[in-house]
Backbone:
């Protein structure tokens, strides 16, 4: 019974995909043909992978609900493989085609999800500082950052349910278990250092009551997005511990140059040149930055002295939000005044929804252009 219906769903889905890909392209305006696809970005094997956040809260909400279901399933597979494997030997469980197609059909039905109307509705929310009829890079960054923060908090709440074993709304260190991808892989990021250990936990516990509430737990999972001085200080301390090859408790120029400086430079450079500048040409900017950071002039960087660049060493959501804002403005700012009017946004609607195009869709797009050459 279950298998039969699964086969029918797949057949229907394939038929729909076939019809979509072979339907005649009626409108010359190519944006009309772009199909918005829902993403499902969560992955146990690579939870640190960063996907752009959805621009539209409504899309984010649909994606979030789908992702929750996928997460639950993967969580079960991880924690109780016996339950999952018994049912379908050698057969990956199928995505829920029905809901999946429904939600996507909704987004692609212009009577229901009218992208122009969405942008008109969202514009005043984004154009907030100041509300002057233009959306600046800063406003767009803040917007994306808000969306990302919601997303991150939502995932933390989901995580918290798993760790908060006695369901009192707090996670104690005894309750907390490091993520399986950390435990299973000795070489994974941070395992041999202080990450996910008691010191990290304590640094996240802002009020020092030995328990993490959701705010503190969210900070614990995402220290680089935290505003907590205690946690940022811990992050700097970890950084020194990792870089300090001669074990003097501070970062000297060599330790800085071979490692940290590249991270800061990559962060600052918007476009990465394919030609790598030579080692020599980098040493002088590196020395310059080092001496700027070295406030007490002892030719060593202390934990405190790393604070100004810690956000560049561990890119925060703000970094990704700005990247996304820059990309959108570069694509939609038709009159090149560096900011977006509502008209510019309406005329380039799909730039805002580009985060939910799949790679396949880009390919279709190229095909489309090819047809008209
Ligand atoms: C979307 O809404 C705009 C403005 O209300 C309208 O002009 C346009 O025709 C609508 N598009 C569709 C496909 O309904
Ligand atoms: C990690 O490596 C240490 C020492 O090499 C070993 O004792 C420990 O069992 C390993 N842990 C895991 C989870 O593989
Ligand atoms: C963390 O804080 C607790 C008190 O809440 C303390 O007992 C424990 O020693 C601290 N652990 C570390 C590693 O600092
Ligand atoms: C969690 O605790 C911190 C520190 O006491 C507090 O600032 C924050 O508001 C609390 N968060 C919630 C959701 O109660
Ligand atoms: C990047 O490439 C451009 C053009 O080749 C060049 O003018 C520029 O100096 C390069 N920037 C860096 C940081 O190497
Ligand atoms: Ca504005
Ligand atoms: Ca606390």
Residues:
């Amino acid at each position: 019974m279950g298998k039969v219906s699964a086969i029918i769903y797949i057949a229907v889905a394939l038929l729909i995909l076939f019809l979509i890909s072979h339907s005649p392209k009626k409108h010359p305006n190519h944006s009309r043909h772009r199909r918005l696809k829902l993403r499902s970005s969560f992955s146990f094997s690579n939870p640190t992978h960063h996907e752009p956040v959805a621009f539209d809260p409504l899309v984010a909400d649909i994606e979030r609900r789908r992702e929750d279901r996928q997460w639950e399933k993967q969580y079960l597979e991880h924690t109780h493989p016996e339950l999952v494997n018994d049912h379908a030997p050698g057969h990956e469980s199928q995505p829920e085609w029905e809901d999946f197609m429904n939600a996507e059909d909704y987004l692609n039905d212009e009577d229901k999800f009218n992208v122009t109307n969405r942008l008109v509705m969202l514009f005043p929310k984004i154009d907030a500082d100041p509300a002057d009829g233009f959306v600046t890079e800063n406003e767009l960054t803040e917007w994306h950052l808000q969306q990302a923060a919601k997303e991150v908090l939502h995932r933390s709440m989901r995580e918290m349910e798993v760790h908060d074993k006695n369901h009192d709304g707090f996670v104690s260190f005894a309750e907390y278990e490091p993520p399986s991808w950390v435990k299973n892989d000795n070489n994974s990021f941070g395992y041999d250092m202080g990450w996910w250990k008691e010191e990290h936990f304590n640094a996240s516990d802002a009020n020092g009551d030995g328990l993490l509430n959701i705010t503190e737990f969210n900070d614990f999972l995402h220290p680089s997005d935290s505003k907590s001085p205690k946690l940022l200080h811990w992050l700097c301390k970890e950084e020194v511990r990792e870089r300090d090859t001669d074990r003097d408790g501070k970062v000297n120029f060599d330790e800085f140059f071979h490692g940290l400086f590249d991270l800061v430079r990559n962060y600052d450079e918007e476009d990465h040149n394919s030609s790598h500048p030579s080692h020599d040409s980098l040493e002088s900017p590196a020395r310059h930055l080092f001496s700027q950071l070295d406030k007490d002039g002892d030719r060593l960087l202390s934990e405190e002295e790393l604070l100004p660049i810690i956000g560049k060493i561990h890119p925060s959501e703000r970094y990704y939000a700005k990247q996304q804002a820059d990309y959108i403005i570069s694509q939609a700012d038709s009159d090149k005044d560096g900011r977006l009017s509502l008209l510019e946004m309406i005329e380039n609607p799909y730039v805002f929804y580009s985060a939910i195009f799949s790679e396949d869709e880009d390919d279709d797009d190229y095909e489309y252009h090819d047809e008209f050459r």
The longest strand covers residues 134-135. The pocket of 2-acetamido-2-deoxy-beta-D-glucopyranose (ligand 4) is lined by residues 206-207, 213-216 (CB under 6 Å). The chain has 18 helices and four strands.
